[in-house]
Write a structure and sequence with these properties.
homodimer, alpha+beta, 11 helices, 14 strands, globular
């Protein structure tokens, strides 16, 4: 996947510029454009407080066709009232004008501080400047990816190529997210955290199917990541399909293969968000099996992932598994300590209600790695879920207590 | 309330000793004894994973009568299987023997590390030593209060005296809690965090009424405190009524007065837990009014209280109110940013969907105090709730990442 990028799927161009919205002098206004009216789907935050671009974006994507995406970082355009809505619509109009399409064919996104009106002069300049430099090179893909970053320390992208008979289909994406991460995105509602993801593909997929595929891929990826469990006002994941590969995805077999490839791209992106969680020094992958049902498995995995005590223990390489078992019991779904088995980095530490004899120092050493695996078998049913999170460090506090409005 | 203490209500004795269970050389085994078979009620954690003493305690308090409480700190006796249950029963038997009652009349409690068997020899010695020193002085009350502490930095106690006609009724209590704090205690199930509270009164209250009064008092106090929202396996709040004042609480008016006084004691104790939250430098009091209903008010207040981003902003005296509004929207209950008003330390910052012009530096200075007040009027219905939490500091990480098992 290493050489492919967001613009490898045929039929897309992008660009981004620094328009002076962010403090940091990296791109903050970006355009992603499809040559044709792409089949499009998007999922949005389920927060009752959603940003103006989320409102406008939901309306614009409803028809299943988009020509492009316009995004800014440095300002979330959230909690900005009617003026915020007018600004989000204005962003679409400005982008539509330079692209040559209808404003309703543009998905707008914003990320950054909440509660401040967008500096529309800068946004407008940025859109015009970006339009003058549209291209499909790796450099263009990189710039667009940079334009959505805020507190992120790393760029996040993934891409894949799959053969469909004689055709090669590509799926690619970029995303951002480091803090305010706890997405619960659905087609009609929203996630936790500002998480933005833009996915491109040159497969030909009808809008209703694309929506279904995107929602499913998000559930097993972005919606399974949490940094601070704070669902954002702006979370958005959008998938545009140009159809330029000529490969039509409609047979059951093709749909399954496409879904698997899309799932792989989304999981890679989601994992990168966990790894770049604010202050993170490691990823914690929590896999719950044999829970009473899938809902219970998800709830238990999330409760463990969101426990500050578990996250701190992970930071300190402390095999304090009592925090994990107690977190599993607190979320209100069926769970029985007398039936479960817990493994930390492959070492069984608790089984059927009883602590096991462990070499705590040796296990602590095994936890001093970039990814710690927590496996909880509940011994109850067939519910399975995996959630990714990161540890909680002093650096998280520094970032979030000293980041002033 | 300053001169009254846990043993001011007539009919109670207590004592505590250091038996070598905790690292820190402060009391770790305590006894609280009533001269008679007290009317008793207790609420326990609703965590599906509950400690052995919680299991035994639920059974023993079911009859509504107790002679005493035996407690140890330094070891939670949780996730310890059948042996843990036998140890909790053994604690009751040892205490019953020295008190001269039935083991079923004893409520056992433990707090500390999860997943280790109790050092029963030390517990047994501790109970015998404590029994030899029972008394009702302020010093005895202090010792018992100390015996329940773990990571707490401060002692927590409260007491009140109320006149009932010619009788003076006293209500007093001690509690512990600093981390693993997010109680949801109910009569039949459990809370978040190890929170222990023991309350005494010399009023005469029938067990069924006592249970109702305790549950109600806990809802507005202990269950409204969160430090890390991690419901513990051991949370317990117990109330013993000796009846020694002679004042019978049964008329509607008397019940209301008693409930108010009990509520005051519990709220004082709960507030002390928030103030001593691990790493806390300040209390954050979140009051939600005009929510769609009471359940929604509680959910919104808790979501704000548990947001790491809000807690970090409080630590940094940052009036980043977007984090508060977005937290209010993420918990799934009805909330509409276009109807609400948010005040931070009395200063309106957001009203009906629109940000207000504020002097951020002046407001930040107003937040640099020991208690920050957050007031969110939802503009929807008559739901009201208050939740207390603390800020999140680097010290929290230090305490919980470096506290090794």
């Amino acid at each position: 996947m290493s050489e492919l990028h967001l613009l490898s799927p045929r039929g897309f161009k992008a660009s981004a510029v620094y328009a002076g919205i962010k403090m940091k002098q990296t791109p903050d206004v970006g355009l992603l454009v499809c040559d044709c009216a792409a089949s499009a789907a998007a999922v949005f935050t389920t927060n009752k407080v959603f940003a103006a671009p989320v409102k406008v974006g939901r309306e614009n994507v409803a028809g299943g066709r988009l020509r492009g995406v316009v995004v800014n970082s440095g300002n979330a355009n959230a909690c900005t009232g009617k003026q915020g809505e007018r600004d989000a619509v204005a962003m679409c109009k400005l982008a539509a004008k330079v692209i040559g399409c209808d404003a309703k064919e543009i998905l707008p996104s914003s990320t950054g501080i909440i509660g401040h009106l967008l500096p529309m002069e800068k946004v407008s300049d940025g859109i015009r400047w970006a339009a003058a430099d549209l291209g499909n090179s790796a450099k263009h893909a990189l710039q667009f990816g940079d334009a959505i970053l805020t507190t992120d320390l790393t760029r996040k992208s993934a891409a894949i190529e799959v053969k469909f008979g004689k055709d090669r289909v590509r799926i690619a994406g970029v995303c951002k997210g480091s803090g305010m991460i706890g997405p619960h995105m659905t087609l009609h509602a929203p996630p936790h955290a500002t998480m933005l993801a833009y996915l491109t593909t040159d497969a030909k997929v009808a809008p209703p199917l694309l929506r279904k595929l995107l929602a499913k891929a998000c559930d097993g990826s972005f919606n399974a990541v949490t940094v601070d469990d704070h669902m954002s006002t702006n979370d958005t994941a959008a998938l545009l399909a140009s159809g330029a590969s000529g490969a039509l995805v409609s047979s059951k077999k093709d749909v399954e293969r496409f879904a698997a490839a899309l799932g792989e791209v989304c999981q890679s992106l989601a994992y990168q968000i966990a790894a770049d969680g604010e202050g993170a020094t490691k990823v914690v992958a929590i896999t719950v099996t044999s829970a009473a049902n899938e809902k219970a498995a998800k709830a238990i995995a999330r409760a463990i992932a969101n426990s500050l005590l578990v996250k701190c223990a992970m930071h300190g390489n402390d095999p304090n598994w009592g925090r994990i078992v107690s977190a599993a019991g607190l979320c209100g779904v069926p769970f029985d300590a007398d039936k479960c088995q817990l493994k930390l980095q492959g070492t069984a530490v608790f089984r059927k209600g009883r602590p096991l004899v462990i070499d705590a120092a040796a296990l602590s050493a095994k936890m001093n790695v970039k990814e710690v695996q927590v496996d909880l078998n509940c011994g109850m049913g067939d519910g399975v879920a995996t959630v990714w999170t990161c540890d909680l460090s002093r650096e998280y506090i520094t970032i979030n207590a000293d980041y002033h409005t």
